[in-house]
Amino acid sequence: MASNASNTLQAMNRIRQNDELCDFALQVGSRTVRVHRLVLSSCSDYFRRMFATDMIETKKNICVVKGFEFEDVQQCVGFMYGEDFKFDMSNIEGIFKLCDLWLLEKAKNECTKYLLRNLSQDCIDVNILASKYNLNDVRRECHKHTIKNMTELMKYNENLPIVDVIEIMKLGGIECVSAIDLWNFATHWMDKQTTSSLESTCHIIKYFPVNIFDVAGFQEHIWKYKHVETCHECRSFVSNTFMDSLGTVFSRHVNLENCLFLKKISKSFQRRSLEIWIDEYIIRQHEGVFKSPAFIEVAKDDLLKLAENIDEECSKSHFSCLVSWLKNHPECHMEVFPQLFENPQDSDKLFLYSLKKFEKGNKDQSFFSRFYSFFVDYWLLNTDNCIYMKNISQKCQCRNAEAKIDEYVIENFREVSKSDDFCDIDEPSMEKYLKTQKNYRSSEVVWEAVKRWVEFDLDERKKHFVTLFSALKLNKFSTVFLREFVCKYHLVNESIICTNKLIEVLFKRFEKQQEEIDLIKKRLTSLEKKK
After folding, report:
1. How many angstroms separate the CA atoms of 24 and 64, rounded?
2. How far apart are CA 509 and CA 338, in angstroms?
3. Residue predicted with more confidence, 287 or 243
4. Can you say how many angstroms the Cα of residue 243 is from the centroid of all Cα atoms in its chain?
5. What is the pLDDT of residues 118-172, one digit of tens each?
6. Residue 100 in contact with residue 135, Cβ under 8 Å?
7. Which of 103-112, 243-252, 347-356, 404-413 reaches the highest mean pLDDT?
8. Cα–Cα distance measured from residue 399 to residue 421, given in angstroms and rounded to the nearest whole number
9. Are the C-beta atoms of residues 203 and 178 closer than 8 Å to each other?
10. Is the separation of the CB atoms in 323 and 385 below 8 Å?
């Protein structure tokens, strides 16, 4: 029976192609497809209803098809006459849309089958099309395929509808895919959206399954994402959601690497019970906390709270950590120092050193003077902190400490001149270091130090160059170095004073050499006479 029906359709299609017995036409632009009403009405409720009413198309025996390609209309008509579709991704949407308009359910099923077959090649495009026409089965398969091939498909996902990105996020959380891959997929989509799509970005972040990250992953990827950093609502949401996901086993996730971060977010978003637990952990593990790279980010209040629970004695590494913290929080100097070091009522809990050692200094001195004198006397200066401590001692008028730091800088000028803080030296100190410099064995080190300091802020500091140049002990420089490097420096050439000093040094050196030559000649002459 099916064979007879197929044969009948094939016969009618041949008749149609020969334009025999056709009683209706479909007009697409300037072109026409001739058809039989019987076939159209038997395959499509759209045409059956049209022909059953007194519509203008029925009277004129022609239907104008707008918004579709002629080839797509031909293919849909051919399907009603028993032909197979010739799909590709360039025509599938037009054909599906026309099948949807003409209520060709079997034809729509063929479109769906084609889309499912092409998931591996055009998953993102298929997903977009499936979303547009509510093909939920196809969408689900697209989501599954995306989860399995996330890394490859990520760079093409910017045109996906937000509902599909959210569904992929949810499915990724259930399927336990790579947390980083899923997050990269989400951020690539968010980064490609326009600035007017901030609401969509918030939606994606709120639906992302943050529980698939451990604490380190959450901090590195989600917490540091640019939108999370700027949107308080998203920051609050992901923090609370993540803290909730840790649940009753919260303590298992806390360690020395993340305790300060968890403390920060629990405090920021008022998770009081968690904050108290982390505080207790930090106090128990204070030795390790001090050595954590995140220690410099500790809030002032937390630092002081930690200080209240530290034993009297401390190590040099503790002190080094505090100096690093102070360098990153200069605004806290006046407030933090006295609370840490100058409370006689807490003599049994001093933060960095014992009260006895601290009070060895003159009690009439200011607090800062005592502190920096102690620092220089008891703790080892190094090339990384000496300039910083030098500037603070100047600020606090701690002359003894400043003098000792100057001695250290002069003795270790080669290493200090290469430190990050070297260019923070003021001009009088720089001049003093050059005048008292003991080691001119490496002319290059001293000369490069001067150039580096001046060129750090050339417009402002070039006015000091003549003074610094005059402070240099040019007689310690080799003739070759003076000729090849110093003579060619542009600031030397721009200054008559510098040029004259350089000429004077070179001329004296020439005179001395000439005297030595004359002395050698006299000795040779004397030896010849003796012979």
Report:
1. 11
2. 57
3. 243
4. 23
5. 887 888 888 888 888 888 888 888 888 888 887 777 777 777 888 888 888 888 7
6. no
7. 103-112
8. 20
9. no
10. yes
pLDDT of residue 361: 42
The partner residues of 26 in beta bridges, in order of sequence, read 33, 63
- Cα 26 to chain centroid distance, Å, stands at 58
Q: Which of 271, 223, 267, 283 minimizes the C-alpha distance to 246?
A: 271
pLDDT of residue 451: 92
In this structure, which long-range contacts are made by residues 267-274, counting pairs with CB atoms below 8 Å and at least 24 apart in sequence? 267/299, 267/302, 268/239, 269/236, 269/239, 269/240, 269/243, 271/240, 271/243, 274/243, 274/250
399 versus 101: which is more confidently predicted? Answer: 101
User: Environment class of residue 277 by beta-carbon count within 10 Å: exposed (0-12), middle (13-18) or buried (19+)?
Assistant: middle
Determine the average pLDDT of the residues in 453-461: 92
* 345 has pLDDT over 60: no
| Residue 63 three-state SS | strand
User: What's the token pair of residue 285?
Assistant: 């593990």
User: What pLDDT, on a 0 to 100 scale, did the predictor assign at position 346?
Assistant: 36
85 close to 95: Cβ distance less than 8 angstroms: yes
Q: How far apart are CA 320 and CA 66, in angstroms?
A: 78
Quick one: which of 158, 222, 239, 144 has its CA closest to 194?
158
Say how far apart CA 253 and CA 243 lie, in whole Å. 10
Percent of the chain at pLDDT > 90 equals 14
Phi-psi region of 191 (alpha: psi -120 to 50; beta: other; left: phi over 0): alpha
